[in-house]
Amino acid sequence: MNGKIGMIGSLVNAATVIAFAIFELIGFNCGSYFVCILLSVSFICMIAAFDAECAEDKKAAGRTALVMSGVYATLIMIVYFTQCTTVINEELGEDAMRVLGYSSMGLMFNLDMLGYGIMALSTFFIGLTIKAENGKDKALKILLLLHGLFFPGCLILPMTGMFIGGGDSSSNGGMIALEIWCLYFLPIGILSFLHFKEKDKM
């Protein structure tokens, strides 16, 4: 059961990253927001499956990663459920839109950055637990650990105020950054799926 949950979570993870990249390119914001909700749920499943198989001496790192995945998912669900409901369905005033609208790069954008920073921490800690027995697992472990480097930027940059008055979050620079992240994170989902598939055969 653990392996199957890991496989499903990883597969959905990879699929949502692909969908997100496509929706960003064609400017389908509602689609981008919705798949991020699915991504957060699948990420918890993937991390939980890794935690379930980690060695006894690495349980603390695994549990830390699992808790962090829940914090990430909570923040992301708040951000994107707000976009898919309140922001889309209600006629908000300028002040409310500045606070609740993701594209205005206000509160919701900052919470999103924090969420993905916490996600980076989660991948770092789960990377510490993986026993790399083959080339695919070694690559996965490296990708997970290096993804943790996103945490400081995601945490600190919003505090500097550099995004205030920066225009629309869907600008070319922002979109390019998101597409690069997708290219980086997609192999994590694919390699995780292959990892759990092999474990499930044992």
- Number of folding domains? 1
Instruction: Give the overall pLDDT as a whole number.
Output: 92
Distance between the termini: 13 Å
Compute the number of strand runs.
0
Secondary-structure class = mainly alpha
The number of helical segments is 8
Shape: elongated
**Beta-strand content:** under 5%
Rg, rounded, reads 17 Å
- Give the H and E element order: HHHHHHHH
Helix content: over 70%
Unreliable segments (pLDDT under 50, ≥5 consecutive)? none
The largest sheet, given as strand count, sense and whether it forms a barrel, is: none
What report would you give on this structure?
This protein is mainly alpha-helical. It has 8 helices and no strands. The chain has helices at residues 2-26, 29-53, 59-89, 94-100, 107-129, 135-147, 150-156, 172-201. The radius of gyration is 17 Å and the shape is elongated.
Chain-wise SSE layout:
Blueprint: H1 2-26, H2 29-53, H3 59-89, H4 94-100, H5 107-129, H6 135-147, H7 150-156, H8 172-201
Helix pairs in contact: 1-2, 1-8, 2-3, 3-5, 5-6, 5-7, 6-8
List key phrases describing it.
0% strand; mainly alpha; 202 residues
Brief rundown of the structure:
The protein has 202 residues and is mainly α. The chain has one domain (2-201). It is built from 8 helices and no strands.
